[in-house]
Amino acid sequence: MVQRGLGGPPRIADKVIHRQSVRLGRTIKLLCPVEGDPPPLTMWMKDGRTIHSGWTRFRVLQQGLKIKEVESDDAGTYICKATNGFGSMNVNYTLIVIDDASSGKDSQVPEGSNGEYEDHSGKQWARPRFTQPAKMRRRVIARPVGSSVRLKCVASGNPRPDITWLKDNKPLTPQEIGENKKKKWTLNLKNLKPEDSGKYTCRVFNRVGEINATYKVEVIRKYCPLGHSTKIGVHCQ
After folding, report:
1. Given a cut of 70, is residue 129 above it in pLDDT?
2. Alpha helix locations (H) across 99-204?
3. Is 135 helix (H, G, I), strand (E, B) or coil?
4. Pfam families, alphabetically (predicted)?
5. What's 166's domain CATH number?
6. Can you give the three-state secondary structure of 128-151, one letter per residue?
C-alpha cells in the first residue's frame, strides 16, 4: 500500500489479465485495480473513444467497467486511465467476443504486450491483424437495388487465421456465402435486394486472439420518373 502522507502516482494494486473473452449476450466486468495517494480518478476508453453515459449497456464503476448484453461490436481495445496529482497510468485490455460459431477456436495462451509470444519450442505466434486497413475505412455503404458490393477483411497472423461472416450477428450459411468461400477475405454481395440491408461482421481468429470489423450495408430502392430508363439490373419502384 502507498504510505499515508507521502503521496504518489497511481500504480497497479493487483494482477491484471490483459486478454479477456466473453460470449455474445453475456455480461463482463473489466477491473481497474489501481491505487495511489490521493486516490486516482479513472476514465475508460474503447478504441480511442471515451466511454460516457450515452453508452447504454456500459457502466463505469468505482473499480471497473461493466458491459451488459455483449455484442460483437464490443470487441476491441479498452483502456482504463487513472490520474491523480502525481501522475497517471493506463490499464489495457483486449476484449474478444465469441459465440457458437467460434467456440472451441479460442484458447488461453501466454500473454504478450502486443499479442505475440513464443511457445516452448521458440515458435513465434501472433494474434490476427488487418493488413489493408485503408480499404476498410468506409464502413457505411449505400448501393442501389440490383448492384453489388465487396466487403474486405484481409488479415494475417500466426497461425494463419480463419474467418467467419455474420449478418446482424447471425452466421451466414454456406448457401448465403456461395462462391465467395473461394475468396477467403472478401464477401461479394451480388444483385442486391432490399432484404440484404444490414450489418455484416467479419470475424478473424486464431489460437492467439480474435478481431472483427462491421460494415453497414444499405440497399436503396431506385425510384424512376415515368418514361425514364435505368441502368441494367436496377429496378424502379
Report:
1. yes
2. 174-177
3. helix
4. I-set
5. 2.60.40.10
6. EEECCHHHHCCCEEEEECCCCEEE
Instruction: With beta carbons less than 8 A apart as the criterion, state whether 92 and 78 touch.
Output: yes
Pairing label, strands 64-67, 58-61: antiparallel
Helix (H) or strand (E) holding 175: helix 174-177
- Return the pLDDT at 142: 94
Q: Of how many residues is the chain composed? A: 237
Distance CA 227, CA 206 (A): 55
pTM: 0.47
Name the pairing type of β-strands 76-84 and 140-144.
Answer: unpaired
Residues 81 and 137 both lie in one domain: no
When divided into structural domains, the chain yields a total of 2
Q: Please tell me whether residues 52 and 137 are part of one structural domain.
A: no
In a domain, 52, yes or no: yes
Count of CB atoms situated within 10 Å of the CB of 30: 20
- Is residue 144 one of the residues assigned to a domain? yes
| 84 CA to centre of own chain | 31
Dihedral of CA atoms 7, 9, 10, 14 in degrees, nearest 10, equals -70
Closest to 37 measured CA to CA, from 11, 13, 62, 2:
2
Contact 107, 207 (CB under 8 A): yes
